[in-house]
Amino acid sequence: MKANPPKTALKFLRWFCREDYLEEIEGDLIELYEDYYQWSPRKASWKFTWSVIRYFRPTFIKPFNRYPSNNIAMFRHNFLLSFRSFKRYRNAFFINLIGLSSALACVLLIYLWVNDELHVDKFHEKDHRLFQVMEHLQYDEVIRTTKETSGPMAEAIMEEMPEVAYAAAVAPPHWPGFDGFILSVGEKNVEATGQYVGKDYFNIFSYDLIHGSADQVLTHKNAIVISEALAIKLFNTTEGIMGKEIVFQHEQPFLVSGVFKSVPINSSTQFDFVMSFELYKDIKFWVDDWGSLGPHVYVVLKAGTDVSLFNEKFAGLIKRRFPESIRSPFLKRYSDNYLFSAYENGVLVGGRIEYVRLFSIVAGFILLIACVNFMSLSTAQASRRSKEIGIKKVVGSRRKDLILQYLSESVLMAFFSMIMAFMLVALFLPQFSEIVEKQLSLTYDHALLFSALVITLFTGLAAGSYPAFYLSGLKPVSTLKGKLNAGSNAGWIRKGLVVFQFTISVILMVSVWVVYRQITFVQEQNIGYNKDNIIFFDVEGNIMDNMETFLTEVRRLPGVVNASGTGHRMIGHNWSVSGIQWEGRAPDDMTRFEVAAVNYDLIETLGIEIKEGRSFSKEFSAESAKIIFNEASIKAMQLQEPIGRIVNFMGEKEIIGIVKDFHFESLHEKVKPFCFILAPGSENKIMVKIEAGREKEALDGLRDFYESYNAGFAFDYQFLDESYQAFYAAEQRVATLSKYFAGIAILISCLGLFGLATFTAERRLKEISIRKILGAGESGIVRLLSRDFTGMVLVAIAIATPLSYFIATTWLENFAYRIDLKWWYFIGVASLTLLIAWLTVGLQTLKAARISPTECLKNE
User: What keywords are annotated for this sequence in UniProt (predicted)?
Assistant: First the structure.
């Protein structure tokens, strides 16, 4: 006998539905009722009626009979449905909100940093015509590229190259000693950073002058141009100060010839004042030598100049002036230098842009992980919402209407998450700015708001796309019966999404660990001299004329082990030459040596080990005619039994010692040739070795003695080991940021895993109850429910391990001296990931395993 649906339910449907719709769904309704009837003939009528009454309420039926033509009404309707969905599935809502807001906060922070990086030095009006002179130095088969050139370069360019509108040489502010000049007005002393620049400097760069003309401010050697901030510090005003006197280093008076607005924070060059480069040439004899490198040169090309053609003509300029040179100059756009500064064998290979790309990718992955969470939880809830979807489709809802509803829901979720993300960014921006060493600010300008809107829409559409198409594609009959025909595929997709999440998390965790180990290796590596407890400070004031007396008194201070003077900070390049001659040197040998002009006891102060021969000593005469090389120098010169051999460098010099190789560059580079010459009176730094444990006593004594001996000068010192770490500032930032981002990625992944575990446990409550009745223990149930998740995490680890190995190996290739990748790095990260996953899933499944079977089963 054919089972017929109850009349009450059909009357309810006729009340709300159009007749044509009712005719279309009549067969489905009959099939649904028959399914109930087969299950329980006695309960079929009231279950069918209750289902219709429960799901066919006016709030569901009216919009789906025919969608309102008014777009605003449609929007209000979807908005209301989204709120009801959030309220009904509040656990999933909060999990998605936390995950998406955390990811969007990361994206916003990285956006602020990337945006700032991309705009550094872009504010100059002549940006498209503003270039810096670079040089390729050819050494046998190796090409070294440098920003440094010769002092006469700017004048030669103006003489030979009519395509150039302006050219200026600069002794930049990052040079040793340029960050601590003392400027005095009356009794007021101010420490400031300065540079020496050519007369057309303000015609080249857009540092706006408040007072003075760009053509005139640097025409005299005794002129000084100061910033607005420095003018206020010295004179308490910027008005009426033109022509007033400022004393430089308590010695030389200069006259204010101009005042410029303070340098923008998005300028890669920060300084407080400038003076004439012509004056610098009078101070430093080597600046006018074509064989020396040091100054930077900037040019502005005339409009319409082809840079490629210009570089072809420009390449031979140095050899026309200095025939034996191995250098060939070229122009590079100035504003590109900040991001694109790394060269390998004369080829541009990157620079800071690599970190911009890296963290942009990291931001994308973190956002993708959060979107995956949303997809996973939404598809996992399909069984919860299946009847809702089935009823809507039965009463006439079109698929595109459902897609629009669910996409609206996900976009609204993304909108809420973006609001919370802005709150998180405002909270953590000061700490983030400190890590990246930038003055970032959250200004709600058009660019930021537009970018936030685009990110929000992208996130909402990306996160909601799959759930929307998946849920809207469910068949009404199957959903109303509780049978999801796409369940198997959806299950595999959810597992794939979880695997993807944890794969990215494992890669990030391995990367953080490798970066940490490499930085630790760098910090603990024996660099060939003892940089611990050594401070250095500038030679200035009375010290310049009384070096020996000063050093003698310093050595007598309590807590001081030794002290000496040097013209080299032992960190980075300072003075390099290629003109050293020796017996057997090949005519085309252009080996470049780093040179340190030092005083007695410098080698002993630093603890550099003598491999062969001796150090400079007052017990011997004519020590200024002696020279000491490192091992790399002797290897490059191919000298046998070098002690006693004569080389020609600033006159004939006898080799008296060979020191073991030490690193004066970062461990990115191999040790290069280095030599010491004795040149008392030419030092610009003093290095002091302090006894361990007596640092405060020694520094207090040094400060008192320095300020009494050098009145008017501040005792501004730096620790050598801290300065050495500046080599790895970029890596330190990467390590710190990666640590936080990896933590957020694993947190978001675990949130998704927690949500899926919660949902899975809820779906299997009856199964759990039956198993407990049949004697299953809590531990067995926990293992059962955790088994699938464990498998997914293990698959993620298997995929991530080779990928992370490749990424780590590629990054470590940037270091000439690096760690070996140990197998336990990967096993350790894998174990930690698995432990975190077990804790995340285990806590939830344990809660489900402890539920009372009676309470669960009696609700059926």
Answer: Cell membrane, Membrane, Transmembrane, Transmembrane helix
CA angle 759–763–768, rounded 5-degree value: 115
Q: Are 782 and 849 in contact (CB under 8 A)?
A: yes
Q: Are residues 393 and 444 in the same domain?
A: yes
Give φ, ψ of 221 to 5 degrees.
Answer: -70, -25
Nearest partner of 343 among 586, 134, 596, 132, judged by Cα: 134
Q: Is residue 718 part of a domain?
A: no
User: Among all chains, which residue has been given the structure tokens 């990361």?
Assistant: 106
**Do 328 and 451 have their domain in common?**
no
Residue 669 is classified by DSSP as S
Look at residue 779 and give its three-state secondary structure. helix
Distance CA 790, CA 831 (A): 12
- 10 Å CB burial of residue 268 (0-12, 13-18, 19+) is middle
List of residues 6+ apart from 64 with CB closer than 8 A: 392, 395, 396, 397, 401
Q: Which of 61-70, 379-388, 724-733 has the lowest mean pLDDT?
A: 61-70
Number of separate domains in the chain? 5
Of 761 and 151, the structure prediction assigns the larger pLDDT to 151
Mean pLDDT, the chain, rounded, equals 80
91 shares its domain with 182: no
Mean pLDDT throughout 335-342?
89
- Look up residue 529 and give its amino acid: Y
What is d(CA 551, CA 466) in angstroms, rounded to the nearest whole number?
Answer: 74
**DSSP designation for 290:** T
Q: Are residues 398 and 520 in the same domain?
A: no
Angle at 683 between CA 682 and CA 686, to 5 degrees: 160
Residue 64 pLDDT exceeds 60: no
User: Hey, how many other C-beta atoms are within 10 angstroms of the C-beta on 424?
Assistant: 16
Are both 545 and 490 inside the same structural domain?
A: no
Between 12 and 845, the more confident residue is 845
Distance CA 598, CA 282 (A): 23
Q: For residue 68, is pLDDT > 50?
A: no
Q: Are 209 and 259 in contact (CB under 8 A)?
A: yes
DSSP 8-state code for residue 529 = S
Q: For residues 594 and 677, what is the distance between their CA atoms, to the nearest angstrom?
A: 11
768 within a domain of the structure (yes/no): yes
What is residue 59's predicted lDDT score, i.e. its pLDDT?
A: 38
Query: What is the DSSP secondary structure assignment for residue 725, as one 8-state letter?
Result: G
Whether pLDDT at 56 is above 70: no
**Integer Cα distance of 407 and 457 in angstroms:** 10
Reference 646, options 593, 570, 581; nearest CA is: 581
The DSSP secondary structure of 194-210, one letter per residue, reads EEEE-TTHHHHS---EE
Question: Where do we find the tokens 């089963």?
Answer: 857
* Averaged pLDDT for residues 650-658: 89
Give SS3 for 157.
helix
pLDDT tens per residue, range 110-161: 889 988 989 999 999 999 999 999 999 887 677 888 898 988 999 999 999 9
pLDDT tens profile 695-713: 888 999 999 888 888 877 8
What percentage of the chain carries pLDDT values higher than 70? 77
Neighbours of 727 (CB within 10 A): 18
Cβ-based neighbour number of residue 805 at 10 Å: 17
pLDDT at position 69 is 43
Q: Which structural domain, as residue segments, surrounds residue 811? A: 486-526+729-860
How high is the pLDDT of residue 381?
60
Element (H, E) at 227: strand 223-227
Same domain assignment for residues 91 and 180: no
- Cβ contact 109:434 at 8 Å: no
